[in-house]
């Protein structure tokens, strides 16, 4: 039986995935598409199809239809190469994204910032990156190049990130072949390359900021009171280490506290309320795994390596788990 907590976590993931895709669809429809700037991913291929069909039939095939159709074909081809969860969440993401772009794009015949292509590209790229980052943090996917990258990585040593970069670069570069005026032949690919730089940067920033944590090292005479307050008020664990002040030659107790970055101010206030003369160091850390933080996910090797890998997982988890502190 599925617990209520798992249902809520799954529902929360889908809510944030939808929000991230809404942000991406809005940025693409309101800032990038009206400027006729071809970007990477299935949205970029959809743009290429639109321009080609418009030239041939005087009426372009809607980008939303191209995005959905191409992703369905790719998922059918890649069904055995990817996990069932990836397929389900990708179908959800692609459906939401295609629907949103189909609804929003006709509403924005002109870009929001008039006669400022560079500004629209910057804003659009930033919002697209944030949207992708939000969706990725909650295990979502917009499909497209992600599916191609997953297939390639399974049958070769090329990483998923490298495959995505190559595919996006080829998509944007191919826009040079589209019939345009002399000025646009160079301008459009250049703006597309700018989007390719901004989107992963913003996505990485979103993903890393969500995983950032802070490690405190605290020296205080009132270490017991501080440790108890951190447990009870900040709901974080403490590790107490024994040390010696070499100048005074006296034994000292050192507290180690790990918390999320947004919880750092709460810890500071607790320390200051108890001992304003406490000596504190703070360090930013990424990728804290264990109870109360992120789940450690490792791809296990062959059965002969299980014992070694299990030991490694246990060691990392016990080090990061706040309850063990």
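^ Assign residues to that structure.
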């Amino acid at each position: 039986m599925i617990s209520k907590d798992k249902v809520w976590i799954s529902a929360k993931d889908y809510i944030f995935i939808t929000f991230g895709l809404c942000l991406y669809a809005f940025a693409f429809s309101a800032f990038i598409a009206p400027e006729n700037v071809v970007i990477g991913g299935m949205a970029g291929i959809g743009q290429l199809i639109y321009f080609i069909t418009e030239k041939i039939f005087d009426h372009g095939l809607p980008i939303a239809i191209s995005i959905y159709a191409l992703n369905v074909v790719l998922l059918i081809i890649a069904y055995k190469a990817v996990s069932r969860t990836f397929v389900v969440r990708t179908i959800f993401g692609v459906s939401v994204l295609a629907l949103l772009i189909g609804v929003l794009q006709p509403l924005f015949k002109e870009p929001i910032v008039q006669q400022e292509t560079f500004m629209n590209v910057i804003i659009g790229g930033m919002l697209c990156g944030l949207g992708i980052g939000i969706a990725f943090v909650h295990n979502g996917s917009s499909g497209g190049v992600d599916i191609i990258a997953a297939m390639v990585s399974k049958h070769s040593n090329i990483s998923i990130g490298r495959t995505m970069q190559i595919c996006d670069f080829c998509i944007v570069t191919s826009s040079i072949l589209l019939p345009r005026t002399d000025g646009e032949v160079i301008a459009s690919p250049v703006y597309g390359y700018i989007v390719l730089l901004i989107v992963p940067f913003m996505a990485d920033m979103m993903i890393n900021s969500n995983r950032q944590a802070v490690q405190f090292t605290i020296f205080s005479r009132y270490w017991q009171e501080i440790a108890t307050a951190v447990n009870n008020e900040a709901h974080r664990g403490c590790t107490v280490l024994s040390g010696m002040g070499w100048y005074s030659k006296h034994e000292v107790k050192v507290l180690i506290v790990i918390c999320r970055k947004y919880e750092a101010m709460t810890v500071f206030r607790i320390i200051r309320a108890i001992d304003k003369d406490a000596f504190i160091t703070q360090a930013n850390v990424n990728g804290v795994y264990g109870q109360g933080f992120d789940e450690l996910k490792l791809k296990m090797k062959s059965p002969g390596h299980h014992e070694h890998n299990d030991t490694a997982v246990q060691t990392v988890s016990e080090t990061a788990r706040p309850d063990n502190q």
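Confidence is low (pLDDT under 50) at residues 181-186, 305-325.
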